[in-house]
Write a structure and sequence with these properties.
34% helix; two-stranded antiparallel sheet; 22% strand
Length: 164
């Protein structure tokens, strides 16, 4: 299996987030596009990337789209990760055998998938890439009828890229 890329059909999933809300792909896509962020609480690259994902969430919070993080962790470490980074978007966790992660097969953590309302993957960003996150934000903005917001500016003291 390989990481899902543009044009691939996103596999259906149903998972419970840290707030005990069931999140199903089909239901999320009825609202609009979905950004699915797969990571781990023990991943230093995820720790670098997820505050930018929080910026994305805040930039378009009132629009018709969804954001869901999926951490390859137990609930306790997932909660601590979210609290430590001040994350306010929905986060779900899964443990071995990682059924959702296996279906999406991320090549690194983190990996971000922009899934269009029709269920097709529109973009995939692996690892931490400011250019990739800004591209994903711009594509999301276009899909929801907003102007693009730079969520990962250069010159903010963080690297432009870090492998996952």
């Amino acid at each position: 299996m390989t990481t899902l890329g543009p044009g691939d059909r996103a596999p259906e999933f149903s998972i419970v987030d840290l707030g005990s809300t069931e999140r199903q792909l089909g239901a999320l896509l009825r609202r609009g596009p979905l950004v699915l962020a797969i990571g781990k609480s023990t991943c230093s690259t995820c720790e670098l990337a997820f505050p930018y994902v929080e910026r994305l969430f805040g930039a378009y919070a009132s629009r018709n789209w969804s954001l869901l993080a999926l951490l390859q962790d137990a609930r306790g470490p997932g909660r601590r990760f979210a609290r430590r980074l001040g994350l306010t978007f929905p986060i779900a966790t899964e443990v071995a055998p990682y059924p959702v992660s296996r279906d999406y097969d991320p090549e690194a953590t983190p990996t971000f998938f922009l899934i269009a309302s029709d269920g097709l993957v529109a973009d995939t960003v692996a690892a931490f890439s400011k250019a990739g996150l800004n591209r994903l934000a711009a594509e999301l903005a276009e899909r929801i009828g907003e102007g693009p917001v730079v969520i990962a500016p250069s010159g903010d003291g963080k690297p432009a890229f870090r492998p996952g």
